[in-house]
Amino acid sequence: MCHSKKLVKLAVHMPILLPLVLLYYGAASTHCSTVHENNRDLQALLDFKQGITSDPNGALSNWAMSSHFCQWNGVKCTPTPPLHVTYLLLDGQKLSSQISSSLGNLTFLKYLDLSSNNFVGPVPLLDSLQQLLILYLNNNNLSENIPDALTSCSNLTALDLSSNSLVGSIPPKLGLLSNLVYLNLRSNQLNGSIPGELGQLKLQTLILSNNRLSGEIPQAFYRLSSLNYLGPIPASLGNNALGLQVIDLSFNNFTGQIPTSLGKLSNLTFLNLEYNWLVARNNQDWEFLNALRNCTSLQTLSLSYNELHGSLPPSIGNLSASLQTLLLGGNSLSGQVPQSIGKLRGLTWLALDENNFSGTIEGWIEKLKSLKKLHLESNKFSGHILS
Ligand SMILES: *[C@@H]1O[C@H](CO)[C@@H](O)[C@H](O)[C@H]1NC(C)=O
Ligand SMILES: *[C@@H]1O[C@H](CO)[C@@H](O)[C@H](O)[C@H]1NC(C)=O
Ligand SMILES: *[C@@H]1O[C@H](CO)[C@@H](O)[C@H](O)[C@H]1NC(C)=O
Ligand SMILES: *[C@@H]1O[C@H](CO)[C@@H](O)[C@H](O)[C@H]1NC(C)=O
Ligand SMILES: *[C@@H]1O[C@H](CO)[C@@H](O)[C@H](O)[C@H]1NC(C)=O
Ligand SMILES: *[C@@H]1O[C@H](CO)[C@@H](O)[C@H](O)[C@H]1NC(C)=O
Ligand SMILES: *[C@@H]1O[C@H](CO)[C@@H](O)[C@H](O)[C@H]1NC(C)=O
Ligand SMILES: *[C@@H]1O[C@H](CO)[C@@H](O)[C@H](O)[C@H]1NC(C)=O
Ligand SMILES: *[C@@H]1O[C@H](CO)[C@@H](O)[C@H](O)[C@H]1NC(C)=O
């Protein structure tokens, strides 16, 4: 029989002895490795299992006392005693229930993946998981608000809550997750605006598409939070904080102009703003195109189904030579397509459909030799299309 309970108590009462106690504990538990010496982790897993109402694949069928919990399906532990759960991977198992907050007791957890199941109810309280790096709860049917308590998981680098039924606004406190590089909240029912606090993050990927978000796309979002106010900073430092590579804000209710500050994101590869109410009516509104020249790795730009009016500025041709996808359909663009678009030699997909373009496509179309998809329908183009 292991003495883990007694030892834990001892440690609490005599913190100075803790290293010694842990040494002893470590040594002792190697002699009884089949026994569940870590009752707290065991209990948390058992509580989680008990809450599951449906397990059609039998994903948890070997979660029984006959084996050590570190050998259960989907569980991985620290390599040496005292054994603690570090990974819990149960994605795509058709599990149904609420997610038990007992998981919040797995304090050594680094990686929690419960994606693509049928979990319902609120996002569980996981506020003690200081070591958690990856949290994937996407593709379930979780409801209610995104809890502020998530921000206690201060080491989180990737958070995916996409394709659930979450409501309310994006908690500004997410801006406290200073290690977060991947944030995906796609396909929920989130409303309100993007909190400026998210600008404090060193995000590389931000996916907020298919929600009910509104307001303007904040300029502040792309700046290096408070450091900018401390005076001149080395360019390299400034650059490091602006590493966003993927931005997807499509299918929301964003309004206003497309911010020129996007030009500060020199590593941007993917920018999808389609299906919003973003406006361009005059030269100043189109200034973002000049700014985007800085994004020399840009491969995809979609501005389809917004409120872009007037003629397409010739500066479109100054976008990145890496650009492969340029989607401008479903706006109110008119006049001739500028010849400079022929400079975008890497384009494989160009959509100009459902606008009011006129004139001929000759002069530029033949330069786009890599094109595989071309959408020109519902315009007023004239002349003949070359073979
Ligand atoms: C966490 O563990 C403690 C015992 O260490 C227990 O009292 C508590 O109920 C557990 N919390 C949850 C949410 O299961
Ligand atoms: C978690 O973050 C704390 C500081 O907030 C740090 O001391 C610790 O090393 C981090 N742990 C991991 C696993 O990154
Ligand atoms: C998700 O849960 C809501 C209740 O919160 C329910 O109305 C809806 O039908 C569920 N959706 C799916 C796909 O199960
Ligand atoms: C967001 O939706 C909730 C209902 O889910 C509503 O009470 C709240 O007023 C909405 N907030 C905004 C800013 O639209
Ligand atoms: C977007 O805003 C309009 C009003 O401007 C509103 O009618 C519509 O329901 C909103 N759409 C979403 C998905 O919130
Ligand atoms: C851009 O990417 C390069 C190469 O991955 C990296 O060295 C650089 O720090 C990144 N720049 C920013 C602003 O994050
Ligand atoms: C483009 O990059 C240059 C140098 O990196 C920088 O000075 C300028 O402010 C950037 N332009 C925009 C619009 O961000
Ligand atoms: C394209 O950029 C060059 C500088 O790199 C500039 O001289 C030219 O005016 C730009 N063209 C357009 C159409 O903006
Ligand atoms: C398309 O352009 C014509 C003029 O060429 C104008 O009369 C019409 O209102 C425009 N339609 C749209 C949808 O912008």
UniProtKB/TrEMBL annotation:
Listed SMART domains: LRR_TYP
Domain Leucine-rich repeat-containing N-terminal plant-type: from-to ranges: 38-78
Keywords: Cell membrane, Leucine-rich repeat, Membrane, Repeat, Signal, Transmembrane, Transmembrane helix
GO cellular component: plasma membrane
Localization per Swiss-Prot or TrEMBL: Cell membrane
Ranges annotated as spanning the membrane: 7-27
Keyword Cell membrane: yes
InterPro entries per UniProt: DNA_repair-toleration, Leu-rich_rpt, Leu-rich_rpt_typical-subtyp, LRR_dom_sf, LRR_N_plant-typ
Protein name as annotated: Leucine-rich repeat-containing N-terminal plant-type domain-containing protein
Species this chain originates from: Paspalum notatum var. saurae
Lineage: Eukaryota, Viridiplantae, Streptophyta, Embryophyta, Tracheophyta
